[in-house]
Write a structure and sequence with these properties.
This protein is of the alpha+beta class and 88 residues long. It is 38% helix and 32% strand. The chain has one domain.
């Protein structure tokens, strides 16, 4: 379970991601078997296409906005490090 301060830190990172790449919505989820458990998000959910990519073995990032955003694993090393520290 994430602490409130960990959620705030991750929400801040997601906010910057949305602002920098003009995304409508971004959120993180943890894989639990076949299910996905929402952890934290930023922005307003819309009915546009949702994209996702595995950041770690357990954590997935979902976003709505540009369908071909970028190679998220290369550009978001900082996010991956924050997630690994905060979500363990």
């Amino acid at each position: 379970m994430l602490t409130d301060s960990a959620k705030d830190e991750l929400r801040f990172v997601l906010k910057k991601l949305c602002q920098n790449y003009n995304l409508e919505h971004a959120y993180l989820a943890r894989k639990i078997g076949k299910r996905r458990h929402f952890l934290v998000g930023y922005g307003k959910e819309s009915f546009t296409q949702t994209n996702h990519i595995d950041l770690t073995n357990q954590i997935i990032i979902f976003w709505q906005g540009q369908p071909q955003l970028f190679d998220i694993k290369e550009r978001l090393d900082n996010l991956i490090q924050n997630i690994n520290q905060l979500v363990q």
